[in-house]
Design a protein that fits this description.
The complex is a heterodimer.
Chain A: H1 2-33, H2 37-65, H3 73-105, H4 117-131
Helix pairs in contact in A: 1-2, 2-3
Chain B: H1 4-31, H2 35-60, H3 67-89
Helix pairs in contact in B: 1-2, 2-3
The chains are: A mainly alpha, B mainly alpha.
Chain lengths: 132, 94
C-alpha cells in the first residue's frame, strides 16, 4: 500500500517537472521573439512561475520518496520547497519593480498602448505642481 | 523506494530542454536593446539555474547542492531591485 502511494507521488513529481520544462521553453522562446519590453514581461512571468516554481515543487515530491538520497532526502525536499516559495514571492515583485522603473524613467516606449493611466496621473500631478 | 533507474533515463531529457532555454535566455542577454531587457533575462536565467541545481541534486544524489538554489533566487531579486532603484532615483543606497 505504501509502495503504491510512493509511486503516485513520484509520478506526480515527474509530471510537475515535465510541465516546468515545457513552460520554461515557452517562456524562453517568448523572451526572444516578442517585440518590446512590456510584452516580454508576460513571457518572463511564464518562464519564472511556470518554469521555476512548479518544477521545484516536483523536485520536492520526487526527493521525498527517493530512498537513494538516504536520510538527507527531507533536507532536499525542504530546501526545494523554500526555494519555490521564495521564487513565488520574489519573481512578481522583481518584474513589477523593473516595469515601474522602465515606465518612470521612459527607457522603453509603451508601444501597444490603449490607455496609460500612470502617465496621465503623472502629467496631472506635474500640472498641479506648476499651478502652485 | 529506489527511483534511480527512472531518474537516470528521464532527467537527461529534461536537462536538454533546460539547456535549450538557457541558450535562448543568453541570446536575449547579449542582444537586449535596453538594460531592463537584460535584467529581465538575467532574472529568468538565475531562477532557472536554481531549478537546474535542484534537478542536479536528484541526478548526482548529493543533498548539499540544494543550498545553492536559495542563494541564487535571492541574488536575482537583489539585482532587480538595484536596477529599478537606480532608474527611478538615479542613485543606489539610502
Amino acid at each position: 500500500m505504501l509502495e503504491v502511494v510512493e509511486w503516485i507521488v513520484f509520478i506526480i513529481g515527474l509530471i510537475l517537472v515535465t510541465i516546468g520544462a515545457i513552460c520554461d521553453l515557452a517562456g524562453a522562446l517568448g523572451l526572444v521573439r516578442f517585440p518590446n519590453f512590456f510584452v516580454r514581461l508576460h513571457a518572463a512571468t511564464v518562464g519564472t512561475i511556470g518554469g521555476a516554481v512548479i518544477p521545484l515543487f516536483g523536485v520536492a515530491l520526487i526527493s521525498a520518496v527517493s530512498s537513494q538520497l538516504g536520510p538527507f532526502r527531507w533536507a532536499v525536499a525542504g530546501g526545494a520547497i523554500i526555494a519555490a516559495f521564495l521564487i513565488m514571492i520574489i519573481a512578481p515583485a522583481g518584474s513589477h519593480a523593473l516595469a515601474y522603473a522602465a515606465h518612470k524613467a521612459k527607457i522603453v516606449p509603451v508601444e501597444p498602448k490603449v490607455c496609460d493611466l500612470l502617465e496621465e496621473h503623472e502629467k496631472r500631478k506635474a500640472k498641479e505642481a506648476e499651478k502652485k | 523506494m529506489d527511483t534511480t533507474y527512472v531518474l537516470d533515463i528521464y532527467l537527461p531529457i529534461i536537462f536538454a530542454v533546460f539547456l535549450v532555454s538557457f541558450t535562448l535566455y543568453i541570446i536575449r542577454i547579449v542582444k537586449g536593446p535596453s538594460v531592463v531587457d537584460m535584467a529581465l533575462a538575467v532574472d529568468c536565467l538565475a531562477f532557472d539555474l536554481a531549478v537546474f541545481i535542484g534537478l542536479l541534486t536528484l541526478y548526482f544524489r548529493t543533498p548539499f547542492l540544494i543550498i545553492g538554489a536559495i542563494a541564487l533566487a535571492l541574488w536575482a531579486y537583489i539585482l532587480d531591485i538595484y536596477i529599478a532603484k537606480y532608474f527611478v532615483r538615479k542613485e543606489v543606497g539610502e
